[in-house]
Amino acid sequence: MIIGEHLYLLVAVVTLILCVEMKAALGSFTTSGAGDDAKVRCIERERHALLQFKEGISYDYGLLSSWGSTKEMKDCCKWRGVQCNNITGHVVTLDLRASLGWYNNYQHLKGEISPSLLELQHLKYLDLSCNDFEGRHIPEFIGSFTRLRYLNLSNANVVGKVPNQIGNLSKLRSLDLDQGIENNGSLYVKNLEWLSHLSLLRYLDLSRVDLSKAIDWMEAINKLPLLTEFHLIECRLSVVISPSLPLINSSASLVVLDLSGNSLTSSIYSWLFNFSTTHLDFSSNQLEGGIPKSFGNLNSLRILYLGYNELTGKISEFLQILSRVAEKSLEILDLTANRVGGSLPDNISTFSSLKALYLEENQLSGPLPGTLGQLRNLISLYLANNQLIGTLPKCIGQLSMLESLDVAVNFLEGPIPLVLPNVTYLDLSSNKFSGSISFLCSTINENLRFFDLSDNHLSGKLPDCWMHMKELVVFDLANNNLFGKIPQSLGFLTQVQTLHLRKNNFIGELPPSLKNCRNLLVIDVGENKLSGHIPEWIGTHLTSLIVLSLRLNKFQGYIPPNICHLNSIQILDLSQNSISGIIPHCFNNFTTMVSRNKLENLIFYDFTGHDGSYYFGRYIDSALVLWKGQEYKYQTTLGLVRSIDLSSNSLVGKFPKEISSLAELVSLNLSRNSLTGHVIQKIGELKMLESLDLSRNQLSGEIPTDITRLNFLGVLDLSNNNLSGKIPSSTQLQSFYTSAYAGNHELCGLPLPNKCPGDETTLDPSVTNRVKTTSIKEMRMGL
Q1: Which domain holds residue 647?
Q2: For residue 765, what is the domain's CATH number?
Q3: C-alpha closest to that of 427 among 402, 406, 410, 396
Q4: Number of domains into which the chain is organized
């Protein structure tokens, strides 16, 4: 009876306390006006805390425009990114992840994480990812949000030590601190003991957090029994496996394990094989040797990334081990850039669930198996940069799901028998394929976006069916034996950005329909037999061009002045044609050559599948630049090159002074024309110039002393003009071979052997010997 009375009193007291707290809480709510139903709104102190947080943001791109103190903005539960509990009114969610606005404008917060957020003690979800907190530390008070279940501070530009106080968040289910490529290593951890307190954690991403000193990372992970997805990408991990390390048994919950981009060796295997992982990424590590038989324990394996390691052995051995446990389940196998050899076995077709096979950059040899056509679910097949021989099996055309095929840089030959109606990405370049490409017209492929058959032995005319391929972005048929006229239907490729037709035998004019391809960034039709005038529509319609190469054709007439509308042009090559007239005086309109802008070093395109779920690869564009008779291919640094080549034409008139405005120009070649007048006096304004060739013209007068300001000049040729006077003195100008100044009979001074009038010093014998040696060397080189 006494116990019952005490229990009754206890219940009464608790009820009274709850009522008092609820009344106090309700007293702080604002309610609707008379006649409206009472409605819970945000708590005043929490609203004030959020406004204080906003004050710490220096710029918000309008993301916090709904946050305010006016009557219509007073309810913080209606603010962007804020969510309140429907009953208590407490803020439980703060989701301020940055977003993409109109035209992919990156909209983010910039400033600091204010301690005022401490007032939000009922917070369960906090996402501040992809913002810019300007290199500040993660505040330790984050560890005070003890109700927090989701925390995301990824790509937020925070630095320093990850606070151990995060270990206080015992209810946390998801933690993401990935700092992205730009801030790689900006965060660091000395040990991960605090992580073991997060026993409810299911998702963990510490990618690009420096864990080089956290040798206990494996022990910490072993203490997270509910962890299902785990990412430690580029964390500078080391492997220290203690004999006393408790290994997780095969019933562990881990499904996704991503340890790519570290320096892990094969010693990691003994820890790895105690998981029942279905998605494993060990790419870009230091794994070596053959695939261990222990892989046969991964009986739920669906996705396996082992690319960019030092793995060896035969591909048949890899597949045999995997077939024991994953023959019917394996969807993705990536062994890119290893040293795996041997031939692809016929029984690869037994992997019936396979969707993507990445084996490029290995040592595979032999022919392709004729059973490939049985891989009915295959979406991506990458076999580039191997030593494959034989023909392309007709059965590949039976892969109705195939969207991406790359067999570039092999020794495959014969005709191309493909009929691939769904392919998006097709790269057959750098092989020995022959015959025509008429197969393109045998089926309508409206999905094709990447098409590269360059560097083969293809012949015949270019098909006239491009009106069916309006999604094409990259089109490369360079270095083949194609002939005939370029068809008008190319004008239907309104999305095309790269057009490479170099080194073929095309004739006639550039089709006027190409002016419809307004997205073009690169046109290279050099080394053909094209004729006619340089079309004026290039300057009026294709104003986004970065590379224009019409080199080594039969173009004639003058350079149209409206070519100066190409404000983004970086490489302009009209050399080795029959172009006459003067050089337009508007080249200073080439904005990209005048001042450095924010262009990427690369000109590239990323390709994905129809639904975006599969990444097919990145195409890095390239261009050829001729320096001193040699071709240089620029690819990864293409965005840094600025070049003008008008050599070997019939141009007349003076050297345009406007060219001196092109301060970012790297290479200028006006040789083998009939230019007259003086070398421009302000040539030193071309401060980035590395190569200058003005040879074989009719230039006269002295070499301007301003040329000594060209500190990066590595190639110079002023030979065979009518230049006179003394060669200006500078360390560079005297270091060039005599051939750079030869054929200017009134030119004198070093490095030439003839002294200028008034020079009294005797020529240094070592210079004389060098001149003689140089002359012999040049004779041997055929100069």
Answers
A1: 522-781
A2: 3.80.10.10
A3: 406
A4: 2
Domain termination site, one of 201, 218, 251: 201
**Structure confidence at residue 40 as a pLDDT band (50, 70, 90):** low
Angle at 192 between CA 189 and CA 196, to 5 degrees: 150
Identify the domain boundary among 201, 227, 243: 201
Domain for residue 767, yes or no? yes
Return the closest-CA partner of residue 43 out of 105, 82, 94, 90: 90
Question: Could you count the other beta carbons within 10 Å of the beta carbon of residue 94?
Answer: 20
The helix or strand, by DSSP H or E, that contains position 485, with its residue range, turns out to be strand 481-485
Question: CA 517 to CA 533: how far, in whole Å?
Answer: 19
Tokens of residue 50, six digits: 């959020």
Residue 185: inside a domain: yes
pLDDT bucket at 39, cuts 50 / 70 / 90: low
Q: Is 754 helix (H, G, I), strand (E, B) or coil?
A: coil
Half-sphere exposure of residue 345: CA atoms within 13 angstroms, side-chain side: 12
Q: What is the pLDDT of residue 598?
A: 52
Domain presence at residue 575: yes
Residue-averaged pLDDT of the chain:
85
CA distances from 453 to 263, 369, 371, 433, 523 (A): 37, 22, 24, 9, 16
- 372 assigned to some structural domain: no
**Contact criterion met (CB below 8 Å) for 260 and 283:** yes
How high is the pLDDT of residue 31?
30
pLDDT in tens, 668-711: 999 999 999 999 999 999 999 999 999 999 999 999 999 999 99
Contacts of 582 by beta carbon, 8 Å cutoff, 6+ apart: 558, 651, 652, 653, 654, 656
Query: pLDDT per residue over 710-752, tens digit each?
Result: 999 999 999 999 999 999 998 889 899 999 999 999 999 999 9
CA 448/CA 399 separation, integer angstroms:
15
Instruction: List the single range of 1-10, 81-90, 173-182 with lowest mean pLDDT.
Output: 1-10
Helices of type H across 273-401: 315-326
Nearest to 433 by CA among 367, 475, 389: 389
The reported pTM is 0.84
Rg (CA), the chain: 34
Distance CA 164, CA 192 (A): 8
Residue 33 class from Cβ within 10 Å (0-12 exposed, 13-18 middle, 19+ buried)? exposed
